[in-house]
Specification:
two-stranded antiparallel sheet; 3-stranded antiparallel sheet; globular; 20% helix; alpha+beta; 1 helix; Flagellar FlbD family protein; 5 strands; 44% strand
Length: 61
């Protein structure tokens, strides 16, 4: 499931919720980490990122 966020460069970014390995709060917003050293920093606060990712991972009704 793809989840949309706004990057620190103000560009919309879609990520695959299944590939997220770690999430942390940083001064610019929230950093989302994936495998192999890849990451993106988004403007949404940590709680909102977690909620969007959890929603994206839930089975659809």
């Amino acid at each position: 499931m793809l989840v949309m966020f706004v990057g620190t460069d103000r560009v919309e970014t879609a990520i695959n919720a299944h590939q997220v390995t770690f999430i942390s709060q940083v001064s610019d917003g929230t950093r989302i980490r994936f495998g192999e050293g890849r990451s993106i920093t988004v403007t949404e606060p940590l709680a909102e990122v977690i909620e969007k990712l959890n929603t994206g991972l839930r089975p659809h009704e």
